Amino acid sequence: MTLAGLRRRGVTSTTINDFVRGIGITRSDGSIIRLERLEYHVREELNKTASRAMVVLHPLKIVITNLEPSSIIDLDAKKWPDAPVDDASSYYKL
Q1: What's the pLDDT at 63?
Q2: pLDDT at 35 over 90
Q3: Largest CA distance in the chain
Q4: Nearest in space to 80 (alpha carbons), one of 71, 89, 69, 68
Q5: Rg, C-alpha atoms of the chain
């Protein structure tokens, strides 16, 4: 696996940098780094950048009786499951 090969497969430079920082520096040539470690960093980067969408194929119609027709409720939804609470970019409005 080369850097050019990783880039050709769509691995971002941020992911590669995080991976290299994560494995650290060693003086031994015999150290083995598992592929799962690179995949972990790829997943972490995708969690932050990939857009997600959900759909309800057969929604149920509901009637809310104690809500005024003119009232509007804004909800914040996380873009990904482990979104940081203090980061405004990790939420979107519903």
Answers
A1: 86
A2: no
A3: 69
A4: 89
A5: 21
Q: Can you give the pTM of this predicted structure?
A: 0.60
Decide which of 84 and 55 is more confident: 55
- For residue 83, is pLDDT > 80? no
Cα separation values, 46 from 16, 50, 63, 82, Å = 13, 5, 37, 12
Residues 44, 73: Cα–Cα separation, whole Å = 32
4-12 long-range CB contacts below 8 Å, 24 or more apart?
11/38, 11/42, 12/45, 12/49
Please give the Cα distance from 37 to 4 (Å, whole number): 19
